């Protein structure tokens, strides 16, 4: 059974940066796309970014384009989310998850396609 552990969250001033990490074990990490998601209390979980198993293809929500970068290191079983120019509206609990289907051609931003989730790491951006 896959285990997913996020880290790297924290408190940062607007305009600052954070790098989130997601360590995965117990599954074929190199065969699975990865996604980063976020959730604010009382709101639905939304996708932020995804990356294919090889790392060659990525996708982002509009608000993340140009500010966030998703990447992965298959040798270390780790996915990353580099977040720059953070804004107060980025404040949320951030989760990463593994895709339920191996060898997907393009990654998906649909939370329902992801099956193994971590406990999340909190990001707070102060204005």
Description:
By secondary structure, this protein is mainly β. The chain is 0% helix and 49% strand. The strands form two sheets. Strands 2, 4, 5, 6, 9, 10 and 11 form a seven-stranded mixed sheet that branches. A hairpin with a 6-residue loop joins strand 5 and strand 6 (58-60). The chain is globular. The termini are far apart. The mean pLDDT is 97.
List its traits.
127 residues; mainly beta; seven-stranded mixed sheet; four-stranded antiparallel sheet; 0% helix; 49% strand; globular
Overview in brief:
The chain is built from no helices and eleven strands. The chain is mainly β. 33% of the residues are buried.
* Helix-strand makeup class: mainly beta
Low-pLDDT runs of 5+ residues are none
Q: Indicate the overall shape.
A: globular
Q: What does the radius of gyration come to?
A: 13 Å
Q: What is the percent of helical residues?
A: under 10%
Compute the number of strand runs. Answer: 11
How much of the sequence lies in strands comes to over 45%
Q: Helix and strand succession?
A: EEEEEEEEEEE
- Quote the average pLDDT: 97
Major sheet details: 7 strands, mixed
What is the overall number of helices?
Answer: 0
Give the termini distance in whole angstroms: 40 Å
